[in-house]
User: What shape does this take?
Amino acid sequence: MSFLSSFFKKETSVLGLDIGSSAIKVVQIKKKRGKAVLETYGELALGPYGQIEVGRAVQLPPEKVIEAVKDILREAKTTTVTCGSALPLSASLITFITIPPVEDSKIGDVVQIEARKYIPVPLNEVLLDYSIIPKEEAYVSEDESSKTEKQGKDVLVVAIHNDYINEYQSIMTGCGLTPSFYEIEIFSSIRAILDQGVTTNMVIDMGARSTKLYIVERGMLRSSHIINKGSQDITLALSKALSISVGEAESLKRTYGLKGGPEYKELTEIITVNLDYMFYESNATLLNYQKKYGKNVSKIILTGGGVLLRGFTDLAKISFQTEIVYADPFGKLETPAFLAEEFAQAGPEFAVAIGVALRRLSELE
Ligand SMILES: Nc1ncnc2c1ncn2[C@@H]1O[C@H](COP(=O)(O)OP(=O)(O)OP(=O)(O)O)[C@@H](O)[C@H]1O
Ligand SMILES: [Mg+2]
Assistant: This one.
């Protein structure tokens, strides 16, 4: 490429889309002077499209999802159809396998053969992807490295059922969008919130329907786990225990969270009980990993709308013996300074959409 053509290269905008169980998140970014610049973003609750409350997970027919996506694109005033889309973790099967030592050209075939043992449907019904987990050269001596070579390679295998891809494809087409990839949400989040450090981190993504736990080592996913409880379960528990409508419960949860004070003692108690359960499960996953691999998880990163609950981190800090931070995916983008506070607060909700957009942007290079 000549100097001039790169100098006058058109700025292309891209979209990242995250259709969650309770809300759609969309982000539009572009590259300017080598930086990813935020152009617009938006969020839309899906509940009302299925006649239920905001904040709840909802199963919508494709035409309703299309209607909602179109609405949020219009509302956010997006200006491109160039995009990528996340797929829910629940749409995938993620396994970690060890394959025997083979030449690089044979790895694909061997992974297929090994993966068959773990994937409960015929392989022609799934989209299979894999990546080799690099050995830790830094920690492995010459002798050990040749020994591990003989032991084979650790491989991360991701399978997505074709039905999911086809469903998403028809939704995207219905919206007039042209995604170049579908990516399991974990990988989008990792891109948006983690740096390529050598440390081991755990990500907690508390959505409406479920809470996803990922352990990431040197940028690579090493373990993933789903807790089938999310932030909507807190709302439903509140509604039941306090005999109030789900809408009121959602609003109490968002307004006061754990910071309601003595006047809202019951609210605090019910939320605490629910979070204790999730923290207990998360801690078990973390401790299990540390024990199994002899690794110390040095930081927990919080994402998903559920972690926006007031007082969430204070309780998390008591429950975990680990540093706790909020995800800051907007930190990977150039954003207007006067909105810094808003971005810091909205960050956890937009991790997936921003991660998708960043990948789409990198494809343009
Ligand atoms: N300020 C807040 N305080 C407490 N909870 C909140 C707040 N804002 C959003 N939530 C909760 O976060 C949840 C939505 O989070 P998010 O958008 O990450 O979910 P999702 O991606 O749609 O769900 P999933 O990841 O399970 O598919 C809702 O249940 C909502 O009640
Ligand atoms: Mg989500």
Q: What stands out?
A: The two ends are 12 Å apart (CA to CA). Residues 93-159 form a domain with the Dna Ligase; domain 1 fold (CATH 3.30.1490). The chain is about 40% helix and 25% strand. The first strand starts at residue 13 and ends at 19.
